[in-house]
Design goal:
Layout: H1 2-7, H2 16-29, H3 34-47, H4 53-56, H5 63-68, H6 76-94, H7 99-104, E1 112-113, H8 127-138, H9 146-155, E2 159-160, H10 167-174
Parallel strand pairs: 1-2
Helix pairs in contact: 2-3, 2-6, 2-9, 8-9
Protein name: DNA-3-methyladenine glycosylase 1
InterPro entries: Adenine_glyco, DNA-3mA_glycosylase, DNA_glycosylase
Pfam families: Adenine_glyco (PF03352)
């Protein structure tokens, strides 16, 4: 958890494959602890072809074996959503829009800098996350409610929700 926080969480990321991975993991986390998801991350990478959305989009036939894979979270709705979202991301790519471009347009390509003193101040969602969630659903994404989307925005650095006294806050604010 510490390594994830120190090296990855909240750091602006523009790699569409990595963004798909984190969106998928946020979906898997719904109702569970993040620690559970991190513990299964490597197994998810193996099961989902290192989150290559071009390969994941065609995994419907693998759903029965995914449901038997004890190394991952075997929630059928979450697995189907991951495959569906890969299809949507591939459709975006085929139309000339990367998943990176699609997501970062919502924050004008610049992380929103919050100024939270403690984690108790950090909301579970925001109006912007609700707006993004609504647009994503309209565009065909699934299992992308506002809480999942806000967690995703935090994870990929679209918002800087590190506490102001955290070393990472200043590093990200200076970028």
């Amino acid at each position: 958890m510490q390594q994830y926080h120190d090296q990855e969480w909240g750091r602006p990321n523009h790699d569409s494959r990595h963004l798909f991975e984190l969106l998928s993991l946020e979906i898997m986390q719904a109702g569970l602890s993040w620690q559970t998801v991190l513990n299964k991350r490597q197994a998810f990478k193996q099961a989902f072809h290192d989150f290559d959305y071009r390969q994941v989009q065609g995994m419907e036939s693998e759903l029965p074996s995914l449901m038997k894979n004890a190394a991952i979270i075997r929630n059928r709705r979450k697995l189907i959503a991951t495959i569906n979202n890969a299809k949507v991301i591939n459709e975006l790519a085929n139309s000339g829009t990367t998943f990176d471009r699609y997501m970062w347009q919502f924050v004008a390509d610049k992380p929103i800098q919050h100024h939270y003193q403690s984690h108790e101040q950090i909301p579970a969602t925001t109006d912007l996350a609700k707006q993004i969630s609504k647009q994503m659903k309209k565009d065909g994404f699934s299992f992308t409610g506002p809480v999942i989307i806000y967690s995703f925005m935090q994870a990929v650095g679209m918002v800087n929700d590190h506490e102001v006294d955290c070393f990472a806050y200043q590093e990200i604010a200076e970028d």
